[in-house]
Amino acid sequence: MASHSDTLVVFFGATAGANGGKLGSDERELILLVWQIVDLHENKVGQLQRTLVQPDSADLSEQCKEETELTAEELCKAEPLESVLQQFHQSVSAELKSLGRSSYTLCVDGPLLIRQVLHPEASKKNLVLPECFYTFVDLKKEFHKCCPNAGPVNDLTLTSMLDYVCIPAAVEQEAGLREVKNTVLLILHLLVEPYNHKFSTFETVNYKFESGACSKTEAVDSETVIRARGLPWQSSDQDIARFFKGLNIAKGGVALCLNAQGRRNGEALVRFINSEHRDMALDRHKHHMGNRYIEVYKATGEEFLKIAGGTSNEVAQFLSKENQVIIRMRGLPFTASPQDVLGFLGPESPVTDGMEGLLFVKYPDGRPTGDAFVLFACEEYAQNALKKHKQILGKRYIELFRSTAAEVQQVLNRYMSTPLISTLPPPPPMVSMPVLATPPFITTGSTRDCIRLRGLPYIAAIEDILEFMGEHTIDIRPHGVHMVFNQQGRPSGDAFIQMKSADRAFMVAQKCHKKMMKDRYVEVFQCSTEEMSFVLMGGTLNRSGLSPPPCKLPCLSPPTYAAFSATPAMLPAEAALYQPPLLATPRTPQAPAHNPAPALAYYSPQLYMNMNMSYTTYYPSPPVSPSTVSYFAAPPGSVAAAVAAQQAPSILPPQPGALVRMQGLPYNAGVKDILSFFQGYQLQADSVLMLYNWSGQRSGEALVTFPSEKAARQAVAECSNLPFSGHPIRLACCE
């Protein structure tokens, strides 16, 4: 059998879109193939072959029409790609047999035709390419080895290479034939004196993606990493490798990214074997995976290691078994044992090495998280396991998904780095402070003067919340904004805000509900301080009412400040930097005078978080004081300002106008109907706020803003109980 270097098949193709240096960048299909055999041993050439390929869409670009001079009518008469590839293989095999050769290697002018056109198109059409398309010779790189002074490889063109060696280009009218003839002339010239070149460097295309583990200590070149965005959430590493078919991904080089809840967020980091393949991957920006286009951007090696790198020996041992299919199980009962999982999967989906093929995800203290990863020896076993998606184990349904080695690392890294009390930094030095009974922060009660924001963007800060609330910011109590974080210290998407009155909270909930913040709509609900405290302690607040926190001990409820009235509070030392001299130095509590003004109580946010973190998923952020329309993260003297605000009339500007609540409205009543009802009061359309119930339907109520309290009271006196489309309307002023 002859070696690969004995016979080359010069191979050329054109697409219905961009060609040349942009070949394959627009996902257009092949429409033309041209080839010719070169016998390197005898310096002979075979017959020049040219054939058209019928695309699924015969819509040709202007560039394609100009360069190829082909028409849609000609292409409609051609054979599809699968048939053309069979003809190519049969034709080349027959010609090789006549030459006494048995094997050959493709030779192309640059890798784009093979890597960016042929392999991606065959993958999308589910075609199995012959083995010859997985190895090829890149003429530009071979020429650069012979003539290193001709310029960088990426700048070489067929014309510039011919000019460098002083070979006149072939004159040929038909596109494709001209390029192949010129390539053959260049190859024959390199085979003889003074070059005597031997074609020995072969480019390869990986048959399949190899999974594997990545260590955090491994060096990853930033010039080899990309970020893919917009992936379907159920896509696996094999799906991503198929999207980049034709390009060689490094072993274990696909890392699916997870969001704060541990679910896939539609992004992945992909590491290629070199920068050349990374650059070709960037040209697939906005190519399609199914019906979705995928965005492709540059990324860094540090980002890849942050997602895919791991240090756990247990994980490394688990992932050391190669060519395994990984399935992630989520929602397992906390009491589930390896035998329970093996029994759930059944004999039709045997786990590799039995219990050795299971990896349970746990918190640092050994508590189970409900997640596990399972290894299967083949795709058939994995498919059988996936059929059990959402089946019941114990009293819980179990979710099963395809997973990757990088996802195993990422999930283990996230849970194993969960901060518990033992891993928190030591609390700052504490100094004694006097505490009196009335705190400005959280006092529990059943009055519904709070609102809950749900669905906040995870990057949202308090400034964003204040901007979101707009004119209603002036109705927030001092120290009334509480961001909620999860146990990992990341934003949970929730926040609580204490308003000045229940009416103001109700109006904000109605007016801001499902308003947009940073491309996300935010739900706003009215609640009480008691309900707020329940959630901050780890309970849940939903439409069905309150679910208590997971702790059962009464002493773990939110702190009640009456209990601290006789005990000095603890103040972090650095907090004294923001206090006025009045409170900076510890002093002996003074006996209260007759009818004393309420004094300020301060407690340590670090202490409050430590009390709750081991029992609850959520804890509040340190209290803040948006006491003006502008927000200052840590204003000096903020505590003194709060004291002054309690001892003097509020300096906040009053809410403009006065509110009137309308009840008993017909459900089809609109803003125009209400404006007509109050004709003569000079109201604008934005003065009317229609109210809705939990189901999103109109509740039969509305809030109307009048220019003054006098006008509001006059409207109530004159219009109350007047008929509105046959219904008597009840009016009341809102305090």
From TrEMBL:
GO terms for molecular function: RNA binding. It comes from the Eukaryota. One of its GO terms (cellular component) is nucleus. SMART domains: RRM. Keywords: mRNA processing, mRNA splicing, Nucleus, Repeat, RNA-binding. Its main location: nucleus. Belongs to the ESRP family. mRNA splicing factor that regulates the formation of epithelial cell-specific isoforms. Specifically regulates the expression of FGFR2-IIIb, an epithelial cell-specific isoform of fgfr2. Acts by directly binding specific sequences in mRNAs. Binds the GU-rich sequence motifs in the ISE/ISS-3, a cis-element regulatory region present in the mRNA of fgfr2. This is Epithelial splicing regulatory protein 2. The lineage of its organism: Eukaryota, Metazoa, Chordata, Craniata, Vertebrata.
